[in-house]
Amino acid sequence: MVPVANVDMICAIAIYPVDVAMKYVVVSGGVLSGLGKGVTASSIGVLLKSAGLRVTSIKIDPYLNSDAGTMSPFEHGEVFVLDDGGEVDLDLGNYERFLDINLSKDNNLTTGKIYAKVIEAERRGDYLGKTVQVIPHITDAVQDWIEDVAARPADGSGETPDACIIELGGTVGDIESSPYVEALRQFQFRVGRENVTFVHVSLVPVLGPVGEQKTKPTQHTVKELRGLGISPDILVCRSSSPLNDETRNKLAAFCHVKPEAVMSTHDVPNIYHVPLMLHEQGLCDILDVDCTATSILEEWTAMAHHLDTLTEEVHIAMVGKYTDLSDAYLSVIKSLQHAAMAVDRKLVIDWIEASHLEKSWDATEHASAWKLLRNADGVLVPGGFGDRGIEGKILAAHHARTENVPYLGICLGLQIATIEFCRNVLGMTGANSTEFEDNPEHAAVVFMPEISKTHLGGTMRLGSRPTLWQHEGSIIRTLYGPGEAVDERHRHRYEVNPDLIERIEEAGLIFVGKDDSGQRCEIFELNGHPYYVGVQFHPEFKSRPGKPSPPFLGLLKAATGQLDG
Ligand code: GLN
Known about the structure:
It is built from 19 helices and 23 strands. The chain is an alpha/beta fold. The structure holds glutamine (GLN).
């Protein structure tokens, strides 16, 4: 890479175990947010991995929240959940999916976390006699954090990674990200300039009737970054069309980078093309790695082309609350995509705003929402909080149950399907969740006893927990394959009322998976239905390209008539 180990070095490591320094790739962004910095950073990770390196990542979020758990999906997109229960930025989901690794909550560094750490140290007396300041105390703590977390194994091998991608959230020049820019500036001296590659992601707008590619925004953001002491080694320019040579040369001249280190990430049909496109432009040479050392890029090429060539559609109705903002359901969308590829179908998600299904809604919108629902090959009700749209979701579950339409309910989607079943099959008309009604006539879903009623941050039932199979022969168990239990990630405060389990099961909705107490419903499946499955956990957080999550695969198989046998 400028600094990453090449394959000869990797072979040398195998024969003579010398202590090779960790390589860091720091990815910052300029001009505006939403340029796909996370996808670019993850794609660089894929290239390093394809060169045979073990790769991990750290996302820095300069906000004051400790974690993303208390943030609204409206503002920040989905809250991604890790095995250890960390509620983190959705970019960590990109890293886990692209690199097939498992990260921990410490891989998401926030201002909330770093200040809490420094203030705690101050109270302990660690800085006795000193004035505690952003520089050097916060900036040192940031660098210590990075070095510590980068060295932790992430790919399941137990081995220390060879390279760490560090993504700095926000845009360079923001007040709140400046301590991190300063920490990263210093970091190059701490670990050696040869061990750090700075990548800056920027925008090249295309303007005017002849489609001129404008370089000025990128010139400005690089000037800002260099003013803060960081000179980028590589520029990645987001643009609608491939950068032409003139633009590339101009950017190189004005931004103090080599022309061949100016990369273009232009519009492509699907994101699997991004690592391939960077490879084609010579990024592996710039990083001084051999990306053909493994078969990983070949697999990505196959995936990208497979997705491009799918034509036969499958329609999945997604009945949710944030349907204008697909980032709120990013991992669910990705999981549907992984499963659709496995059944050779082009995925079409029909977004249905749950409240539009309710009777009281505007007649035209109500009719079009129902039309989408009735025409769907499968229905998915994702996780959610709060009572908006709940009755609409219950109607969607009712439709799927009674019309034999494949259904997957995730977390809240399991809870509302249980309420529907209690109301319409068991005759408990007033059934509800205590999340939506204080004292429902029948509490079908209740607050879990161990959950805090005073603190909302980090207090849900979170992270990876086992689900133990209760019966042989269910569809969902067959999909998961051999084993007595499955581990999936959780994020909830409410559960199906354990007192009702017996009655519900007698009527045919079987709790085929329970937690290790045997009392808590983790998975239900409806007898005699082609595919009516609810999961209390969030399987979307463990789905990977080429390794679709079983509940999603079941939904897509059932929706395309491929489940039998
Ligand atoms: N609001 C429900 C609960 O807290 C469901 C949560 C979810 O869907 N993640 O249990």
